Amino acid sequence: MTIANQIVIESVEGKEKQLKEALNDLVASSLPEKGCQKFEFYQLYNRATSFFIIEIWKSEKRYNGHLESASYVKQMSIINPLIASTQTHNLKLTQCLTKLGLKEEKK
Description:
There is one protein chain. Helices cover 36% and strands 32% of the residues. The protein is α+β, with helices and mostly antiparallel strands. The chain has a single domain, classed as Alpha-Beta Plaits (2-Layer Sandwich), CATH 3.30.70. A 4-stranded antiparallel sheet has the order 2-3-1-4.
């Protein structure tokens, strides 16, 4: 089953630049991972402290492998102190995303 998440992140005040750099590094290292279909990082125009990530993984196994990788664990040890709050929203893929070439795996 495909895993899709939207992660809303609020930076610690004054740490926006550091968090942005660290999250850009996370995106760059996650995209080439096996099973990563999409990993996008955004910053809100009108709130410099607010960011969000959209990530789509081919399977739960690949997603869990990403979360357990040494690279991810190390990056999160840098990122976590820069985060004031975070919310993760699990997403269900829609027909619109399927048209972009992202398809559910057959069971």
